[in-house]
Amino acid sequence: MTRPRFRRLISTGVYLLLLLGQPTWAADGSTEDPRFEINRREYDIGQKNFNRIVHCIRERYESEQVDFKKVFAQALYSTEQVVREVEGAGAVVVMATSEPPYTLQELEYVQHLGNLIAGRIRIGSATVASITQLWNASLTSMVNALDDPYSQYLPPQNYGDLQQFLSGEGNPENRFFGVGIRIEWDVTNNAGLFVRYPIPGTPAAISGIKTGDIIVAVDGIPLSATGTRDENLNAAVDRIKGPEGTKVKLTVIRPGSGPFPLHFELAREPIRADQLIWSEILGADTGHLTLFSFYQHCSEDVEKTLLKLRQQGMKKLILDLRSDPGGFLDEAVKIADIFLPQGTLITYTQGRTEDTRKDFFDQRTGDENFTQIPIVILVDARSASASEVVTGALKDQGRAQVVGEKTFGKGSVQELFPLEGDAGLRLTVAKYYTPNGRCIHNQGIEPDVVVEYEPPQIAVPDENSDSGKNANPKPVTTSSLLEKQLISDNQLRAAYQLLNRNAISTK
Q1: Which of 138, 151, 293, 385 is catalytic?
Q2: CA distances from 350 to 150, 162, 258, 412, 438 (A)
Q3: Averaged pLDDT, 458-473
Q4: Looking at the structure, do residues 127 and 207 belong to the same domain, yes or no?
Q5: Which pick of 110, 200, 253, 464 has the fewest CB atoms within 10 Å?
Q6: Parent domain of 324
Q7: One domain for residues 187 and 279
Q8: Which residue in 69, 316, 334, 410 is the catalytic one?
Q9: How far apart are the C-alpha atoms of 332 and 336, rounded to whole Å?
């Protein structure tokens, strides 16, 4: 009974913004200030976008539990902060706070916000905050107040970049590139990045980076080991990536190469689509297919790779989705499609409104006969989004067992809403669910067999110690190529053993 009244209250608040925030000017619009017309247009654009965002949050946001007092209070607070930074501490009396308690009523926050911005329409001085600055601060903060990292207000530049990215074009000025290595923080020695393996054809592989190498410094600066494993890893990755064509220097400790580090200088390059999928045969008949990203048309490459592996004798499959951050949902559906019978539910989305319920079913006939092949899926804490859709579908439908670590838990659906002035709103409108009705978002996929990744026990020599020359362990000898392939990767070893010791039931 109270919800319609609440909606009327918010609508009234928006109306009051229009009424009280509307500046007064001469009927003919004349003014001596050349910026007047520009400011007035900027105000009108921001005003319309404010109304549109409030409407979208109220009608389309995934959760009904939105504290609009918090939304408006943080919008006003951020706007006041911009005014203070540009115009000086005495420019405005701060009435809003960024943290509760929020002492004003919702309508009061809206009124103050409109009046604060409208008051600068007739002023064109460089010492006064611009209308665009104030609206950007306001709209950004009101969306951030949802505490949803996937919902964002996108100013014109950001909105344009996102549209280009989604179209596959990208923006060359804002793209970042790497050197092509799958890495893990070296928890054994806490000294740097352990190289699981370089991606074939990338600068790392071409330059001679090898599995088992430990990267201890980037551009001559030792990697920090002061945070958690994930914090150390993320900080190191940020230092390695950079603009295309720029150089990065990696200092590497290699087991068996003596006490002195190796130095590599690599040029950062974009990773091509054909470098984002990799395969091999383990033993006599176990295929190992690694997918680094759900890029556009990757399902076609996956099917081609599976056919090639089958020609090489594959009868079982390890689908490796570790550290795969996801990508295109339709590609995830198509990949799950390869392994499931026609008509099987793969995933569904559900939000607050009825139109957000969408079911995704298997559309294929199974002509390539991969619907019966035994599968183990490898995942870790960085397997996210599309990776989780595929994993959840094959697990729930009894088509695969899952080995590794609990996945990231990014299972929300965002919708893009165009705004005035070429800006945009990216808003969470639904969440993904596995066929059995388990929400992926913030929950992740639990593996059937939990196996935390353990880098091989490799001693890192101390360059300052006289005994450093003898600090490297003796090379491990193995009796077969298979052992060499599995010895450095305990998760892959567990998946192989599970697949080759236990029969996996299929539907």
Answers
A1: 385
A2: 16, 24, 57, 9, 11
A3: 45
A4: no
A5: 464
A6: 273-413+430-453+489-501
A7: no
A8: 410
A9: 6
